[in-house]
Amino acid sequence: MDFFNSHVLTLTTFLPLLTAVAIMFTPNLAISRWVAMGGSAVTFLFSLHVWYYFDAQTPGLQFVEEYSWIPSFGIKYIMGVDGLNLLLFILTTFLTPLILLSVWHIEGSKQKAFLSLFMFLECGMLGSLVAFDMVFFYIFWEAMLIPMYFMIGIWGGKNRIDATTKFIIYTVVGSLFMLAAAIVLYLLHYQKTGTYSTNILDLYTTAPLYETQLWLFGAFALAFAIKVPLFPFHTWLPDAHTEAPTAGSVILAGVLLKLGTYGLLRFAIPLFPEAVATYAPIIVSLGVIGIIYGALTAWMQKDAKKLVAYSSVSHLGFVVIGSFALVAGGNQISVEALTGAVYQMINHGISTGALFFLVGIIYERRHTRMLADFGGLAKVMPWFAFMLIIATLSSVGLPGTGGFVGEFLILLGTFQSSPIAGITASLGVLLGAVYMLHLCRKILFGPLDKKENQELQDLSPREFAYLTPLAILAVLMGIYPNLFLDKIRPSVEHLAQNYKQYRLVAAEQPAKDIENVASSEQSAESAGE
Amino acid sequence: MNFSFPTVTLDFYISALPVLILCLGAISAMLQSVFKKVGSETAVFGLQIVILIGALLAALLAPNSVETAYLSGNYLTGLITQFGQVTLLVIAIIISILFKDTWLKAKFFRGEISSLYQMVISGMLVMVSSEDLITLFVGLELSSIGLYALLGYTDPTRKSQEGAIKYFVLGSFATALLMFGFGLLYSATGTMRLSEIVELVPKMADHNWVQLGALFAMVGLGFKLALAPFHLWAPDAYEAAPTGITALMATSVKVMIILVAMRIFGGGLSSIYEVWMPALMFLAVISMIAGNVMALVQNSLKRMLAYSSIAHSGYMAVAICAIGNLGGEFPYAAVLYYLIGYAIISIGSFGILMWLENDQNDNITLDNLSGMASKHPKACFALAVFMFAFAGMPPTVGFISKFFVFNAALKANLVSLVVIGIIGSSISLYYYLRVIVRMFMSEPVKVAAPLAPKNSVIVSLVVGVAVILVVLLGTVLPGPVMDHLISTSLEIARN
Predict the structure, then answer these.
(1) Does residue A524 register a pLDDT over 50?
(2) Shortest CA gap B299–chain A (Å)
(3) The complex's ipTM?
(4) Helix/strand/coil percent split, chain A, to 5
(5) Where are the domains of chain A?
(6) I want to staple B15 with a disulfide (CB 3.0 to 4.6 A). Which of A8, B77, B166, B307 is the partner?
(7) Is residue B81 a contact partner of residue B202, using CB atoms and an 8 Å limit?
């Protein structure tokens, strides 16, 4: 048990990889399905172990594993969980078996490769969530793109190749600049302390000069903003979502996008606290624009999947403004908003994941996603209607669903920080209700006038099996949020506390000290020229 | 300069054994064409493999603990030399095994070609194990002249003469420039030895001639390395050559020139790096941009890889700039790591191309690859791994080696080069991915001569090992390999 406890993160992260390799060697599709399901189920159980033994009182890292990896560069293999990544970690392991269940019926010679890629993707996501070494993180962060690239490119719709190429190039360009910035930070850390380290916790203490921070934060924020995606870097997302197969869309909305907002919380904010104060107004403005723009665009969509895709742009705007809600003259981060942001990440993963599943279900039956082709489905598919309404309500943030808790906390913090942003964002909540109910009305209600729609089958037991856990969770997160908030709060408070502390020190620090660092950096630069 | 006959000791013969074995092999292979009946169909080929393996063993076992100079610096032993020799010989062995079929087609010239091949390799070995400018030049010529001939002569059925002539004319021009540069260095310093030049240059009151010599030498090496704007021969020569020779040009020649450039610029001329570094930076920038942009529009895979190799030369040039600026062992180790990774990826991809080729079609285009994944999933998987590795995506060696190079460059404050490198990498992603798109995501295109490769144990083995190494060097192995390379680099690193 000791061994298990001290290696549980490694086991959880790499079990999907092992499963992926095992799937390649299975003789037929039936067996590979069971292997995939078995692997992902055990992964989920492992992650529940982490959840169960996670000490909610400790703000720091838990289940830490640390080994030397490239000693000459100080690069290490470090894994750990805290309140920021624990829930996302479990969300990933939770969604994977459900998605595997949703593709259970798909036949074909390529399906085995799909399952294998999917498990590979799970490994990438889990790894980038728990990695606490910059280079180690980056490897997972980029490796994760490869399976997603193939999933959209091979199993996608008509414009899949354009969509998938756009997806990977956008993301990689951002990430490469982040890589360069990370190397600069690593070298600055070396200048300051004399030791090479890419451990994120060590890099937190680097605190580069203000001007340097502006550049480095820009590079990091660009990488994560593209991933989120923050307006105006969102253009790859609707394409990728529309062309991706259902399973791909679910995991893209469910986890991949959250890695962007998680990256902002884990890297951009604590690494460059001074730059945060400067950039926060810009980022919050972009977030608010994203909320409104995403909502309006979603409202205009004729394609159900595109509608849900644009709703993601809008919802993630909330997460972003929640992460950058500075109060007390920019010297503190609002703990409420930050908690709400983390909570909303999970909630969005569940509600939007369910929405993509549901759109996929009607697409499979009718081979169209156009809203105009549906209407009155509530009469022939009552259970489908029930699930869609739960997902919709959770997505619009009705009290009693998880969406309410997340959005409420975010707006609470945002109002304290900037009333204008708060008011505009609240308008986004309203618009959210408009376009989501528009979706429901078009699909579920109205006259059942299309002949094809009159013979539609309601949910099959398999579809029930993967929708029910999501529906239960969406409600549970609304009526008993403390189950989750308790795990998040200490780490979030810790993050906010560190930020506050840093600002205090920076304000009081004698100018001399900063000058020293400045002159040493300048001399290093002049040596280069 | 001392013109008395140098004393040759037994130690020298032992450490020069790899070169001597290859020369012996080259001469005996040549005899096959004289006594045609003596050499059977495959005996010469077998002999070539035995000779190469013998040379490899000799290189591995050669004493290397201390860097020793024999014949007043004409022949060196030591870790860097051993690294170069072993790498070159391993590449040579793998390529000759992969190349066997094409090679056996050349019925009448078999002996000569085997002989030329071994001479090329021995010239390369000399090149990486000398610090004397004249010997470097002899080694370069030995390998280059052999390559010109191999390119045009190996497969009489293909139209490779045009590329060979182009390579020959531009290559000799480059060699002349290099010679001129070496001549200027000699006339300014009065010595041919790099280890003496490095001490003399800082003491000189006026080193204009040394500067001029350095620039000429850089142009000459830049030609051989296919750095833009001296790259014009590369795509034509790559396309014209039989693919095995292309692989040799893409890998061995790069290893050889980079090691020599490290010795000349990192060692001998390091004190005047202010002069040559801007020039090399310029070449690196142009190569990274031009190589990647030109590769975007290529349809032939060999041409695409030629342009991509220009871009990769640019990345290595960035690391050499870092050596000049920074010193220390890290940038050296970064270049060596990049070289290893690049060689493995190249051999793997060219191996797949060679496997796909046949008599009707020896210039694979993207159309040939369309929809290939359903027919040859394993080969496509391997090629996809190599393409991701070329593009520098984790978890492959391509990412880690790019990380090391960027790290060295940023440490040397070459921020602009890194930014250009990033832009180049982003561009390159598009054309590497295009190969994958065609293989996995497109429908087959009707082509005149469809490919029907046969299963081959050797190709599977080579490609399989390359895939495994590409992944391992990107995940598990960087730590120990980098430690080893750093201790290797300590030998030539100045502090």
Answers:
(1) no
(2) 18
(3) 0.90
(4) 80, 5, 15
(5) 2-520
(6) B77
(7) no
